[in-house]
Design brief:
The protein is built from three helices and 17 strands. The chain is an alpha+beta fold. The chain folds into two domains: about 90 residues, RNA Polymerase Alpha Subunit, Chain A, domain 2; about 110 residues, YbbR-like domain (RNA Polymerase Alpha Subunit, Chain A, domain 2, Beta Complex), CATH 2.170.120. Strands 2, 8, 10, 11, 12, 14, 15, 16 and 17 form a nine-stranded mixed beta sheet that branches. A four-stranded mixed beta sheet has the order 4-1-3-6. The radius of gyration is 35 Å and the shape is elongated.
Length: about 240
Amino acid sequence: MKRLLSRAIVRDWPLKLVSLVLALAVWLLLVPYEKGSSAKSLSIPLETRNVPAGLEIVERPPATVDITLRAPNRLLDEIGPSSLSVRLDLDRASALQQEYPLKTAMIAVPPGAEVVKISPSKVTIRLERTAEATLEVHATLRGKPAAGYHVDGIEIAPASVAVLGPESRVRAKAAATTAPVDITGLTQPTVFDADIILPRPELRFASPETSARVSVHVVADKEAPRPAASPARKKT
């Protein structure tokens, strides 16, 4: 039995020795890499949270910031930009403050990883108080009635709309408009339902009502204005 075992061990011993050496070399290469640590740079999103009630962001910070991350090699390979973000809490912000520091503690990283650098170290964010205004709603018409007819009058309901937004963007003299209403070929009074379009992207509706009813009174050129017939209704 001992002879059989010893023969099995010494059989093809050069090949077995080479395999052992290769396995040892691979182990010596991989173990230091897995146990060692490295650093890499990433560009990750910057999120602003908890804007105080009554304030609006009018100047936003950059969408991303650059960080340097240090972690064990095996862990570092698994961390990418999609799994990290800088969370800037604005719960104590005011309209007077414009610069906000960025700290490594704002980034949640896996255990064993560390953020060693963040750039820029601060960002500019400008806030304003929220203001409200009432804007008139003007109808936007496209096309012309049929030959021999003309528009005798336009009625809009609601005639005005309340909006909210940053105080420097809310202007009572501005006007909202309706989505274009096509009156091409009309021969009778017609009612359209159209979306209300606000004059600035920073504004928003103060109520759920975001559309208007546009009544276009069309009469024949020789007819008396405003016929008594009930208007047809049409959606745009």
